[in-house]
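Case study.
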Amino acid sequence: MLDNVKISIQQMAVLVIFLTIGDSVLVLPSVIAATSKQDAWISGIIGIAAGMLIAYIILSQYRLNPRASQIELNLKVLGKWIGWPVSLLFLLYYLLMTTAIIREVGNFMTTQMMPETPIWSIHALLLLILVSSVRSGLEPIARTGEIFLPMFILFFAALIILNLPEVKLIHLKPYLGEGIIPPIQGSIYLAAFSFSELIALAMVLPSVRPGKHLSRDFLLAALFGGFSILAVIFGTILVLGQYITAHQYYPAYALAKKINIGQFLERVEAMFAVIWIISTYFKCTIYFYALNAGTTQLFKLRDNRALTLPLGIVLFGTAYAISPSEIYYSDAIKKYWPFMDLTFSMVFPLALIAVYSLRKLAKG
Amino acid sequence: MAETILFSLFVLAVSAYEVPRLLRKRHVKEAVFISFLLLAGFILGIVTTKLIKVPSPLIVLRYIYQPLSIWFFRK
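After joint prediction, the assembly is written out as follows.
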């Protein structure tokens, strides 16, 4: 346990909500609509069902030993020889994930809002904030989440409600126009990008004050996040239609641009960009925290604050390297990233649970 | 050119701040680890910002998951 920090269950639930919504609300509608076109909402429903199953698996892994983090659990259950490579893989996963999120924010800023800004300055700013957040520890992060949540929910609801005048139900037809296979293919994106990426919380959960309602609140918060994304999917498909949603990189941003109430409330997309940066920031912070804490636990270091700046510098380089071109990056995200997410949130936890149960059975 | 110098100065400043602090507390293993990490980060940063072709980490992902992806997304 690092720093002996204890956060409350409400704070954990807030983190779950921010992690589930994360950067999915920016990129998810376009990726799902590319696969399932106008049936993206069916993908959403299937994705939430599959995602709740994944969230339950992550919770079960936590319940094996509520005081051990992901890395400690790996080493304890799988032993030194298998646990070390697996933990290293997890660290690489956290590194890759943080890199991707930083790159997403950079891409969004430089394509939609500030095209003349060099991307490294946005990366540098975000990294400075991340480093200072993780250096402060988990409790300030959780408290910041609690502060931002009401404003976030308000703006999020406003995004959906202010677009209701422009809804055209015809955009949902033809229902299941290409059969049931494309929605099932599209559902993997919601399950992976929103729910699978809760696995980083396995590094945070040991610091949560144990209580009766931890499991219930965890699953409820995940469900809430899932439904929020479903609302955005509905919003983009109903207002923009499946063609524009699939071909825009940031369809929710296009949705915000469309808000026009009596020529008075218009051009408000910058405010929505702020709340998305906030939710993306929380996801990034948790993954960076997981990377930091995981490295400290795996290599048995005694000081985890000193590790943050060097890791930040490494992330600066990888954020450049991960995306040689937008086409390459977006293709890799669409085709291969969900499977990596599912490997780390389903395959490894299930394997851990299986080995743990077998060892308990063998012991008598 | 300016970015490279800025970046190098930043890495130097970080190492000048962190490493002596750790050595003063007699955490030698941590100091070595952090120096290694700083060196790796420095080299990576210089190489990538100078637009030398570094293969993206996503290439490993593609290599591992391509068969699964082709099967899952078939029409």
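Observations recorded in class. Chain A has one domain: 9-348. The CA atoms of residues 166 and 239 of chain A lie 6 Å apart. We will return to this complex in the next lecture.
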